[in-house]
Amino acid sequence: MKRRKLIAVGFVALAALVFAIAAGGVSGATKAKSITVWLQTDAQATNWTPIVAAANAQFQKDHAGVGVNVQYQSWGTHLQKFDATLAGGNSPDVIEMGNTEMTKYMAAGAFQDLTADKGSFANSSTWLAGLAASGRYNGKLYGVPYYAGSRVVTYRTDLFKKAGLKVPTSLSQFTTEGQTLLQKFGKKGFSPVYIAGTDWYFAMSFVFDYGGNIATRVSGKWKGALDTKKSIAGLTAFKNFFNAVSRASKTTDEAHPNPYDVYAAGDAASIVGPAWYTCCLGKVYTPVTAQFTMPSHTKGQVMPGFLGGSDLAVPVGADKALGEDWIRDYTSNASEKALEAIGNIPNTTSLFDNSKINERAAARSWFVPTAKNWVNVENENILRNMLAELLTGKLTVKQAAQAASDNIASILNAP
Hints:
By secondary structure, this protein is α/β, with parallel strands linked by helices. 39% of the residues lie in helices and 15% in strands. The chain has helices spanning 11-23, 49-62, 78-88, 102-108, 129-133, 157-162, 171-185, 200-209, 229-245, 259-264, 320-330, 333-341, 357-362, 374-379, 382-392, 397-412; strands spanning 34-40, 67-73, 94-98, 136-137, 140-141, 144-149, 151-156, 215-218, 221-224, 270-274, 289-292, 305-306, 308-313, 365-366. The longest helix is centred in the middle third of the chain and has 17 residues, at 229-245.
């Protein structure tokens, strides 16, 4: 999943806007002649439109005389357009949101509470953990998981074969194999596993793999968790792995340069990132490229990964009953299987095909704290700075983790 733009509207302004709408009452009636659904332009693809059409047909079968007006939006402008509909009181009845876009709108009260009806949505007990977390706020459900994208290891099969290596099944094996690759093919700037030093998406996977967390909510307050014993163990494992197999800068991020550009230049035996990285590896190496799941420190397990993806929500002011019914049809078993057939990851582990690398990678996942101020943690580069400090030795792992944990708690608990 490619990254989406962060929400631009101020939280206070958004909250005030939503309050004004909510004061006018939230529609629960089902007398509408039609509903409006906002999906992203991804769903306009030739192989995707039949899935939308099938959901519309089922909805109209159950609601005779009620039309469905599907309007396709673009990732670059949909939030601004949504803010305008909130201001004008003409929000869509269903909206697709990127998982990282959900929190600020949930915190502002822009979506209707679906908690009581969770069990009516297909496979709600087996939704992908990382994706489902993005639709929950303060213990309530506001977004139904739609589909996901996972992170995997993309690697040079020719180099692994020449070195006599197999796909690793544990972190320790991957570390050893990386060192073998370095000895056999090492040159200046060559990384057995290219990892950007401040790639916090990857680093936090180690934290969660060791049972740690970024922050937890205790008695209504956020408490930083990076300084816990388990989190520190995960950060230490990340530092050790980076030092053993990556020759990337310890202070660079994952976009400068893009890992797939390093790979395409022949300077990496493997890279870690979204499965769609295969799009950009260059003609030379694409024929000798494959993927595998990032192995856990526990042999045979997959390391938890950060999922990209989308949720479906019912905005305030919309027809909740009809909006929920359309979401049920669009996230039914039949729809999710159809989404899987065209290359997406379905919203539930119950439909997973174990032969598909990207689905195996999504089986264990995590998500950032669903706090209204989380975006400020990202904007202030708290996690990136922590990683740079612990990798360069400016601070010990424990010192860097303690400072980051305190900063995160302070930011998340701010008004």
